[in-house]
Amino acid sequence: MRRRTLTLRAWVIIVVTAVVISSQALVAALTARVMERNMRKEIGENALNVARLVASLPEVRMGFQASEPAAALAPLVEHIQERTNVDFVVIMDMNSIRYTHPNKDLIGLPFTGGDEGRALQGEEYYSSAVGISGPSIRGFAPIYAYTADGRQVGVVAVGIFQSGLQQALGELYSGVLGSAFWGVLVGILGAVLLASSIKRAILNLEPSEIARLQQEQQAMLYSLREGIIAINGEERISLVNETARRIMGLKEDCLGQPIAELIPSTRLPEVMKSGRPEYDQEQLVGDRVILTNRVPIVVAGKVVGALATFRDRTEIQGLMEELTGVKQLVRALRAQSHEFSNKLHTILGLIQLGEYKEAASLINDTSDKQQRLVNLVVRRLKNPAVAGLLLGKIAEARERQVQLMIRPDSHLEELPPLFGTYQVVSVLGNLLQNAIEVVENQPAVRRKVAVAIYSRSERLELFVHDRGPGIPAAVRSEIFAPNFTTKEGARGLGLYLVWGNVQAAGGRIQLRTSDAGTSFRIVIPYRMEGEAT
Questions:
Q1: Residue 167, pLDDT above cutoff 50
Q2: 3-state SS class at 160
Q3: Any idea which of 222-226, 304-308, 477-481 has the lowest mean pLDDT?
Q4: How far is CA 502 from its chain centroid?
Q5: Sheet order of strands, 288-299 included
Q6: pLDDT at 324
Q7: Could you tell me if residue 183 is inside a domain?
Q8: What is the average pLDDT value for the chain, to the nearest integer?
Q9: How confident is residue 331, by pLDDT bands cut at 50, 70 and 90?
Q10: What is the average per-residue pLDDT within 2-19?
Q11: What count of Cα atoms within 13 Å lies in the side-chain half-sphere of residue 77?
């Protein structure tokens, strides 16, 4: 049989209720004890004050000089007892013999209780004792003779029976217990509300479920090949996985440290303050190029932190270059296949007509031109994907009866760190595609496109020039915007991708356009200040 366990809600209610009950019981006990002590003290001080007043009265002091002190003092004591609301006023001599007492049968008998000894020695005080009439709180004061020597002649004891005190204490305890009862009820209600609030805050999950999710999260974070770093509202690192530590060179104790101290050029605080995400940002970290996404962490509509995911772009770059090279090779082969198919049909026709010299001349001319072109591209451009792109575009342009020329002084040695094969192929491909389409419908003399690539000492320069009609002035400021296009059926992303890749690499675009044509000049630096995640 499966053992049933208490839910988190039940545990919270039980624990909070137990705390409330125990605290209310403790408070009630302490309150009752303090109030009882204060009541006893107040009663004792009242009895002592009355005793002092009686002991100081001249009539009482002179009564001890009468031949019958009991008869002289009785009327006065009865009057005082009625006016002061005390239970008894007993006057005794130095031998503890009563001169007065509410019970006249006890007059002349010794005082009982055993607590009058200190008063017979001249001390004023109050105490609790059990006398002949029951337990009482009584105050004692010495009486001094109304003579020149002022010797002590007796003691006055003023008492209040504890039966009245017990009744008052009972009422006190009832009030304290009533308050404690209502406190417990409010505490239980608060426990229920607190338990419900906690359950909502943790998405109605149980502790075991939270623990399992935490374990799964840790396993997931450490199995990801992407680096993950998160900061809290105080801009301190709250989450980091092993990949992030490796890429950023962080130590094991980096959690809780200010991210600005460990990664000075971080942009996570800016993302947290602005609340705007940043996607696919390429950055140079040491000798690594990373691709980063940064997003704010929003809870209940409030930004409480920021998170970055990133990956070493060199790992992705290999796949990009392989895919790009294959794609461009297929495109080049398709265009050349179509071009050579046409030429083969021409050669076949010349042979069938017996025009062997014309056929041989066409074969030699085609072979020489193609060989010179391939030699130029392969010798001057060291990147295979770029070479494949240009060969494919030249073949495509020929099909469209467009002359695409590569300037013979072009040369490409290496690409900038933030502008790799994928970026250069994307930028050149889009610019050349646009240029070919622009001049395709122009007169034959203007169906020309020129491209040049230069590896300078500090920068890479790309040139694409067409002899089209130019870009209308009304749309020049919008050509790099996403989804902007003047072509029917196009998506308007080509120049937007060009602009995004150039900006990410820290480069710039120079545009010149007129009725004589359009020129794009792309400048990409080989070295730039890199930002970290």
A1: yes
A2: strand
A3: 222-226
A4: 35
A5: 237-240, 227-231, 302-312, 288-299, 278-285
A6: 47
A7: no
A8: 80
A9: low
A10: 73
A11: 29
Q: Which of 35-39, 80-84, 181-185, 288-292 shows the lowest mean pLDDT across its residues? A: 288-292
Q: How far apart are CA 46 and CA 84, in angstroms?
A: 10
Closest CA to 415 of 519, 280, 321: 321
The predicted pLDDT at position 398 comes to 83
Taking each helix axis from N to C terminus, what angle separates 8-56 and 69-84, rounded to the nearest 10 degrees?
140
Give every CB contact of residue 367 below 8 A, 6+ residues apart in sequence.
Answer: none
Mean pLDDT of 85-95: 88
More confident residue, 30 or 341: 30
Domain end position, chosen among 117, 145, 168: 168
Count the neighbouring beta carbons within 10 Å of the beta carbon of residue 110. Answer: 12
- Find out whether 368 and 360 touch, Cβ atoms under 8 Å: no
Burial (CB count within 10 angstroms: exposed 0-12, middle 13-18, buried 19+), residue 57: middle
Residue type, 524: I
- Decide if 79 is inside a domain: yes
How far, in Å, CA of 272 to CA of 205, rounded? 28
Spatial contact of 127 and 140, defined as CB atoms under 8 Å apart:
yes
Same structural domain, 164 and 15: yes
CB atoms inside a 10 Å sphere around CB 417: 21
Mean pLDDT of 289-295: 82
Amino acid at 99: Y
Examine the pLDDT at 330 and tell me if it is beyond 70.
no
Give the CATH number, domain containing residue 68. 3.30.450.20
pTM of the predicted protein model: 0.42
Query: Of 160, 167, 135, whose CA–CA distance to 47 is shortest?
Result: 160
Beta strands at 508-514 and 227-231: parallel, antiparallel or unpaired: unpaired
Q: Are strands 302-312 and 227-231 parallel, antiparallel or unpaired?
A: antiparallel
Sheet of 134-144, strand order: 88-93, 152-161, 134-144, 125-131
Residues composing the chain: 533
Q: Which domain holds residue 60?
A: 8-168
Distance CA 475, CA 481 (A): 10
Give the integer Cα–Cα distance in Å for 474 and 477.
8
